[in-house]
Amino acid sequence: MSNLLAIVWFDSKRFWSSPLRLVFGITQPLLYLLVLGAALRGGTYAEISGYQAYIYPGVIGLSLMFTSLSAAVGIVHDRQTGMLAALLVSPVSRLEVAGAKIVGGATVAWVQSLLLLPFSPVVGIGLTPLNLIALLAAMAFAALAFSALGLALALPFRSVIVFPVVSNALLLPMFFLSGALYSLDLAPPWIRYAAAYDPAAYGVDLMRGVLTRQFAIAPALSLATLAACLVCAGSLVMLQLNRRNV
């Protein structure tokens, strides 16, 4: 456990070494929430108290995905510098390394996304202690799944220049298909079909549901899907770490 916590602390400290990273990390989510949300709040998505309130959980999901993938770049950097190889030949088991990297990325993403919570009253969402706790738990679970997916995607790459390009090419489709900005019930059938295979859709609906008590997807299905993503992606991380040429 001490080895796991040490790796998590190292990864978290590295990511937050620059305070500007925290500030600019929420710039894109706030643009969606405050600018796009304000421009479109006269539309049809007024299920809570306006369009900005409706997309608020989706913006949190964007922050979790974006930060998880950004944190995953660290393992590509570790491979370039030889730090990953040194870690893998240390007495720390590869299961601990995989678990710590996933938890570390999730922790970074979760804490980064907490910066969006003070904006909830601005968009008309009142957080009670009960739904705040439920939201924090949903955020943490989604962050673990996104972190595992990010690491599974990052490990095959050996360049910190190439991986961000590829990850951004996958991030935006995942976000736009998740129903973060619109109701999937009103989307064309092909979008609903694609969203069924998008882990972000389950994370966003879970967070939206704990705020509104209205779930488009059964909570048990969302939890099971995110858990399956975590297990499958975590297994891929383990398989890649066990390769001799890592």
Give structural attributes.
246 residues, mainly alpha, 11 helices
From the alpha-carbon coordinates, what is the Rg to the nearest angstrom? 18 Å
Q: Look at the structure and give the mean pLDDT.
A: 85
Structural class determined from secondary elements: mainly alpha
Count of domains: 1
Regions with little confidence, pLDDT below 50 for 5+ residues: none
Total strands: the figure is 0
Shape: globular
Amino-to-carboxy terminus distance: 24 Å
Question: Major sheet, described briefly?
Answer: none
How many individual helices?
11
Strand content: under 5%
Element order: H for helix, E for strand: HHHHHHHHHHH
The share of residues in helices is over 70%
Entry summary:
By secondary structure, the chain is an all-alpha fold.
